[in-house]
Amino acid sequence: AEMRAVVENIPEKPEHYNIVTRLQTVQTRKQGEIQPLTYMACTNPREGTSLLCNRRVDESGYCGGCGRNGNPAARLNIRCRFVDFADSAWLTTFHEAAEKVVGMTGDQVKAMEAESSPGAGEDRKIDECLKSRYYMSQPFQITVRAKSDSYNGEVRTNISCVDARPVQRREHGRKLLGEIHTMLGAAVTA
Fold first, then answer.
1. Please, which residues have CB within 8 angstroms of residue 69's CB and are 6 or more apart in sequence?
2. CA distances from 183 to 82, 102, 179, 187, 189 (A)
3. Which of 67, 63, 26, 19 is CA-nearest to residue 43?
4. Long-range CB contacts for residues 134-138, cutoff 8 Å, separation at least 24
5. Which pLDDT value is given to residue 86?
6. Spatial contact of 24 and 134, defined as CB atoms under 8 Å apart
7. How far apart, in whole angstroms, are the C-alpha atoms of residue 185 and residue 68?
8. CA–CA separation, 145 vs 106, rounded Å?
């Protein structure tokens, strides 16, 4: 709910903020069709930086962004539904954060996707592995990036999960206790 309120007033530059949440589900199908969770990405370094290109490559390993063939690697790009006590939201979750959320590497997910090709309505091995991660007892603190994008001339808010890590219960407990004390102090003075 707080995320939705913040998103309504997004400035031009990207905003980052943290949310404590749990994984509710991962979108593995879209309109009944199996949705790929991985893509093959370029691992060539970008010019003038230490970052990797990470653009999608074709079947031969050619990257249109770099203009070179490379040694492609599987990268995760998944849609996750995160939930807390008040609300839930679908967020695009990219490779590093997605690996932490699903507890598997891109190569492991790619291998599981390749292993099975079920019929209609049948679960794949990857679906079963993902279901074991839903509503885990360990919540995540996710870092969300919200920014304004233009799509077909229409300004939209693009929200994605860029980092995920297990909640440090001691720190989180202290923060919640501080919020309770603040609420009690406000109630006494009112």
1. 60, 61, 62, 63
2. 26, 35, 6, 6, 10
3. 63
4. 134/23, 134/24, 134/25, 135/22, 135/23, 135/24, 136/22, 136/23, 138/166, 138/167
5. 84
6. yes
7. 62
8. 22
What percent of the chain has a predicted confidence (pLDDT) above 70? 93
pLDDT in tens, 118-135: 554 556 788 888 888 888
- Structure token pair of residue 28: 């593995």
DSSP tag of 61: -
What tokens does 115 get?
């292993």
pLDDT band for position 179 (50/70/90)?
confident
Residue 29 half-sphere exposure toward CB, CA atoms < 13 A: 11
Show the tokens assigned to 82. Answer: 């995160």
Residue 184 pLDDT > 90: no
Tokens coding 134: 């839903």
Q: What single letter denotes the amino acid at residue 55?
A: R
β-strand 29-30 against 15-26: which pairing, if any?
Answer: unpaired
